[in-house]
Amino acid sequence: MNVFRLLGDISHLLAIIILLLKIWKTRSCAGISGRSQVLFAVVYTARYLDLFTSYISAYNSIMKLVFLAASYGTIYLMFIKFKASYDHNHDTFRIEFLILPCVLLSLLINHEFSPLEILWTFSIYLESVAILPQLFMVSKTGEAESITSHYLFALGSYRALYILNWIYRYYAESHYDVIAIVAGIVQTVLYCDFFYLYITKGIYGQ
Amino acid sequence: RLLQRSKDEL
């Protein structure tokens, strides 16, 4: 563990908490892409299956459980409890165009052709594009509530901090994982446009 | 140690 990864995990946790609070407090999921949230739940489910097979640390196990619970909790709030406020008309990104390529790519490029490894690789590829429906929805509606933009800023920052973690690990532990690094860079690059808007204008209400 | 899957990362 290093400070970059710890800050990244905290930023990730913060993003998920901000989202849950926004939906719970405003009792509305307006402006939030349910499709992205479904993709995140698939990402965590595919990646954290090793929760039952390999114990790494209490921190690791607890965070995995928190991320899984929070992502399914968000889906429950969006599609069941506050379903009436879900904005179907603007949440239209075709997620099958994201899932299928990630499945194919994870079968072609992976560290080891075993079920758990393929699922992990699939989750890494899918996570890098999982935010696209949300960014697409924000661009379509032309704006985002301030709380939603804070959510996106924290979520985008998490993987950017992980890139610093990978740089650190390369020099400090001579460890690197090409698949995670390339996907993490793609994921962070996708936020660049949003980061620019967030920092220059605070995109809410524009 | 190079190019191994980062198993300890979330």
Explain this structure.
The complex is a heterodimer of chains A (206) and B (10). Chain A has 206 residues and is mainly alpha-helical. Chain A is built from eight helices and no strands. In chain A, helix 2 runs antiparallel to helix 3. Chain A starts with a helix and ends in a 6-residue tail after the last helix. Helices cover 0% and strands 0% of the residues of chain B. Chain B contains no helices and no strands. The A-B interface holds A 1, 5, 9, 12, 50, 54, 56-57, 60, 63-64, 67, 111-112, 117, 120, 162, 165, 169, 173-180 and B 1-10.
Structural features:
heterodimer, A: 206 residues, 8 helices, B: 10 residues, 0% helix, elongated
| CA-atom Rg of chain B in angstroms | 7 Å
Largest interface by Cβ-Cβ < 8 Å: A-B, 27 and 10 residues
Helix count, DSSP H or I runs of 4 or more residues of chain B: 0
Oligomerization status of the protein chains: heterodimer
Q: Structural class, from secondary structure content of chain B?
A: little secondary structure
N-to-C span of chain A: 40 Å
Q: What does the overall shape of chain A look like?
A: globular
Helix content of chain A: over 70%
Report the biggest beta sheet of chain B as strand number plus sense, adding barrel if it closes. none
Number of strands of chain B: 0
Describe the sheet with the most strands of chain A.
none
| Rg over C-alpha atoms of chain A, rounded to the nearest angstrom | 17 Å
Secondary structure class of chain A reads mainly alpha
Question: Mind sketching the topology for me?
Answer:
The complex is a heterodimer of chains A (206) and B (10).
Chain A (H helix, E strand, L loop, with lengths): L2 H24 L7 H14 L10 H24 L14 H13 L6 H15 L2 H10 L4 H28 L4 H23 L6
Helix pairs in contact in A: 1-3, 1-7, 2-3, 2-5, 4-5, 5-8, 7-8
Chain B lengths: L10
Task: Summarize the entry for a quick read.
The complex is a heterodimer of chains A (206) and B (10). Chain A has 8 helices and no strands.
